[in-house]
Write a structure and sequence with these properties.
19% of the residues lie in helices and 34% in strands. Strands 7, 8, 9, 11, 12, 13, 15 and 16 form an eight-stranded antiparallel beta sheet that branches. The protein is an alpha+beta fold. The radius of gyration is 24 Å and the shape is globular. The chain has helices at residues 3-13, 29-39, 45-57, 73-78, 108-115, 133-144, 164-180, 214-220; strands at residues 15-23, 85-90, 94-100, 120-126, 149-155, 186-190, 234-235, 238-240, 252-256, 261-263, 267-271, 275-284, 287-289, 291-293, 297-302, 313-316, 323-333, 339-340, 344-349, 352-366, 371-374, 378-379, 384-396, 408-412, 419-425. It starts with a helix and ends in a 22-residue tail after the last strand. Strand 5 (149-155), helix 7 (164-180) and strand 6 form a beta-alpha-beta unit.
């Protein structure tokens, strides 16, 4: 067996973790990512040589690992991260998709994009500065997006003499703040991204810390894809009717299962019409199967001849979402043009796009202290607020707390197709004060 074959077999049996990094400017996010890639041997030789050359041309003796992720010319020149940089790497234990997100306030929308599909967020803090305004902002965004796992990486410990009391104070303050937001799990790790302490290899300077390194935690954090815990949802993308001599009466509904699992013989409801039927067959990759689950792309056949088209949703008859034309949601405004009360928009939810109007913007969230600024009238770029939208046609919308995939939507400018706003239906934050509050569903939310 060749090395390539063994590597391919290893990857086929490992799980996938999507995670995002966030933090204030100059906290060392890009250096952490570079160190993670470098020390886990996920950097190609020519990439490393290019970084070494660029570092020398800037008068630096050691390679600046931050350059491995800051790919845009403006990013390199200014020494900042502007856009979300996606990196793919793998270890024998797990595969990773990493979103390195910007730290500047004006790029909050970029962090929302990067963290929207993440199952874990790494929030960096400079040990010298502690928890700052941007730290609280990024923790709040992670909470809004219902990211199940949050890691606090207290960076630059080498600049505070690896002092345990400094780390403990920052961890205590951050944990108290995120717990108030309803974040279900926080793990604090003291690191030095520049020196490599506790990133991939354990630190020789912090014997008082007995927890995992960043990579160890990333490799072992549970990534739950428990299908029974998800509400099964199948947005119809395309109706297949070949009407050939071989398949004269075939009618199938093709699409990607957004969440949960579907079985042959299961009673289902088609929304928004409310008509019911039974799954007669499921076709996956040209073969009939008895069961299919997210995120498989399949064709579902029903026992009854029902009028179904693109944008309809198939769900279990005993677990179907409510249908509504009044959508209340938390949104992040991502366009440069503002969103105003009375504005006509298109609302895209899964495969369904309907006309809508913004009826109200009750409040804008001040992420520094989580206070609500009432009746702002409009939202501008990077604002997060509450909106009420009235749709022209009914939608089968879940609460975002129940499903990150089918509880999310986009508001689009009908004039030019520009994405205006990313929305999360239902309550803003998890109910932290309630004992036994349910953790967020971990299905993907595609932006």
């Amino acid at each position: 067996m060749t090395t390539h074959t063994r590597h391919a077999e290893q990857l086929s049996t490992t799980t996938l973790l999507r995670f995002a990094t966030a933090g204030s400017v100059d906290d060392g996010k890009s250096t952490l990512v570079g160190r993670l890639l470098h020390d886990s041997k996920s950097v190609l030789t020519d990439q490393l040589e290019a970084v070494e050359h660029a570092s020398r041309s800037r008068g630096q003796e050691a390679p600046d690992l931050a350059l491995l992720t800051d790919g845009l010319r403006a990013e390199r020149e200014q020494g900042i991260t502007i856009d979300v940089a996606y990196r793919y790497f793998a270890t024998p234990r797990r595969r990773f998709i990493l979103a390195d997100t910007p730290g500047h306030v004006q790029y909050t929308r970029n962090m929302v994009t990067g963290a929207s599909t993440a199952e874990l967020a790494v929030v960096l803090v400079d040990a010298r500065n502690g928890v700052v305004e941007q730290t609280r902002r990024h923790a709040a965004v992670a909470a809004l997006l219902r990211v199940p796992h949050v890691v606090l990486a207290v960076n630059k410990m080498d600049l505070v003499d690896y002092a345990e009391p400094v780390f403990a104070a920052i961890a205590k303050e951050f944990t108290a703040y995120t717990a108030s937001l309803g974040v279900p799990e926080i793990t604090a790790i003291p690191i030095s991204a520049l020196a490599g302490d506790n990133v991939v290899e354990p630190s020789a300077h912090m014997d008082w810390y007995g927890g995992p390194t960043v990579l160890e935690h990333l490799e072992t954090v549970p990534v739950s894809h428990d299908l029974t815990a998800c509400h099964a949802r199948f947005p119809v993308q395309y109706v297949i009717r070949p009407q050939t001599a071989e398949h004269p009466d075939y009618r199938g509904y093709a699409g990607q299962i957004a969440a949960g699992a579907f079985r042959v013989g299961e009673a289902v409801t088609v929304l928004p019409s409310g008509r019911t039927s039974t799954i007669a067959g499921i076709d996956a990759l040209g073969e009939s199967v008895d069961i299919a689950w997210a995120p498989q792309s399949v064709t579902i056949r029903l026992s009854d001849d029902i009028d179904i088209s693109r944008g309809d949703l198939i769900a279990p008859a005993d677990d179907a979402p409510a249908v509504t034309q009044d959508v209340e949601a938390t949104v992040c405004h991502v366009a440069d043009q503002p969103l105003s009360v009375g504005q006509r928009v298109l609302l895209k939810h899964t495969t369904r796009t309907v006309k809508a109007i913004v009826k109200d913007i009750p409040s804008r969230l001040t992420l520094d202290d989580l206070s609500q600024h009432p009746a702002p009238g409009q939202l501008v770029a990077n604002d997060i607020g509450r909106v009420v939208v009235r749709t022209a046609e009914p939608l089968a919308l879940d609460a975002y707390a129940d499903s990150r995939r089918t509880g999310s939507f986009l508001l689009i400018d009908p004039a030019d197709g520009t994405t205006l706003t990313a929305g999360m239906a239902g309550a803003s934050f998890a109910a932290a004060a309630e004992p036994g509050a349910a953790a967020a569903d971990e299905a993907e939310w595609d932006f």
